Amino acid sequence: MSYNRLLILDDDPLIGRTMQAIAESAGFEARFTSAHAEFFGELDGWTPSHIALDLVMPEMDGVQVIAALAERGCAARIIITSGVGLRVLDAAGRSAAEHGLDIAGVLSKPFSPVALRNLLAGTGVAEPATPRARPAQTAATSASDPMAIDPAELAEALQRGELFVAYQPKIACGDGRLAGFEALVRWRHAERGFIPPDRFVAVAEREGLIDQLTDYVLERSLAWFCGPGCAPCGGGESTTLSVNISARTLVDASFVDRALAMCAKAGLPPNRLIFELTETSAMEDPVASLELLTRLRVKGFQLSIDDFGTGFSSMLQLARLPFSEIKVDKSFVMSAARSQESRVVIRSIVDLGRSLGLRSTAEGVEDESTLEYLREIGCDLAQGFHIGRPMEGPAVDGWIQQRYGTPVPSP
Ligand code: C2E
Ligand code: MG
Ligand code: MG
């Protein structure tokens, strides 16, 4: 929409008029009403580009209005306002976003003119994060889906070396030093181009290719991490390499020995290799997973519980299995700057980790204010686009030079 029109629905005329004045001073045409019938009339007749909606109103509350807007397929950007407290506001924002509405953000009353102007200008908060789909839900194989992954093709790609590994840095929240890298697999498909792991890892799990995939990533990432002239390994004795493993790996009794052999070949002590496991996957075969994970720890490897806070039985897993690190799921971290709720969850997870003697890592750090918050609450490590995107090996040296201003140390 190329025009700027704000329609305000608020049962308090003083607040409504004030918002109208602020919007007009920001170059918007603005209309205000306290009546629902008039609001829906203006919606159809005047077609606003933006809507400011009070959550608490007599008659029909803001949540009902949101449902009605969703039903009409409303395309306007919506600002939710209220004095009900951030918890409720956040939930309303999430609910509206899940309804498919375009949420500019939430404003807690009393709010400043600047906060409203920022939201109107689009520089304020964006819509609250919605939970990400689990890999299993996105990896279709049906013949009717043209994007489906063909297992035979995946097996061939593994043989031909079409899969590659990208490395995302982790830094210490406190002093910013380099803590390590997470290895993330990708597929460079000859016709389709880049395919992200969420699309094919679940296929590999289902089709019995996951052990091959894990070994592939482990071998390549160790070779990179410990290779000649490699800064991450040669430069700092305490940097770590993180590799994701699947639930299926936990029933593969030979994995421990293979991992040990690969580490020995690369010359990396096992305590610098961290295996990341999602909390839901650790549950599938509780007895086998406890045994294998314990063996990995006994051999010196580190273990991380990934995406913490999104799965089931998190507490049970955490108490039962021998993890050394807890990774706060990125859905909380990515929304920390705009959601009080998310910040509280992050703090609780970090505190929980500390009480259990685990190192905490927050992934999905996208801005400086979130990093600042993590520092404040004593989170150990941070990972995210704000620090560094996943990069191919050769790009990492440049990233280190740029961030730390030092030449890449020789091994
Ligand atoms: P994960 O292990 O939780 O990895 C973190 C994911 O978050 C990565 O997505 C990374 O690119 C993304 N990420 C990191 N920081 C940010 C940020 O600031 N903003 C946003 N929006 N995203 C961020 P990616 O590479 O697409 O991987 C998705 C998942 O695929 C991984 O989640 C992991 O569960 C799985 N995966 C990746 N590589 C492997 C592998 O070699 N083996 C197995 N079994 N799974 C893998
Ligand atoms: Mg991970
Ligand atoms: Mg994760």
Show the helix and strand layout:
Layout: E1 5-9, H1 13-25, E2 29-33, H2 36-46, E3 50-54, H3 62-71, E4 77-82, H4 86-98, E5 102-108, H5 113-121, H6 135-138, H7 151-160, E6 163-172, E7 178-189, E8 193-195, H8 197-206, H9 210-226, H10 231-235, E9 240-244, H11 255-266, E10 273-278, H12 286-298, E11 302-308, H13 314-320, E12 325-328, H14 330-334, H15 340-355, E13 359-363, H16 368-376, E14 381-383, E15 391-392, H17 393-404
Parallel strand pairs: 1-2, 1-3, 3-4, 4-5, 7-9, 9-10, 10-11, 11-12, 12-13, 13-14
Antiparallel strand pairs: 6-7, 6-14, 6-15, 7-8
Helix pairs in contact: 9-11
The structure holds ligand C2E and magnesium ion (2 copies).
Account of the protein in words:
The chain contains 17 helices and 15 strands. The chain is of the alpha/beta class. It has two domains: 5-121, Response regulator (Rossmann fold, 3-Layer(aba) Sandwich); 146-404, EAL domain (TIM Barrel). The protein has an eight-stranded mixed beta barrel with strand order 6-7-9-10-11-12-13-14, surrounded by four helices. Strands 2-1-3-4-5 form a five-stranded parallel β-sheet, with helices on both faces. Helix 1 (13-25) links the parallel strand 1 (5-9) and strand 2. Helix 9 runs parallel beside helix 11. The longest helix has 17 residues, at 210-226. Bound molecules: ligand C2E and magnesium ion (2 copies).
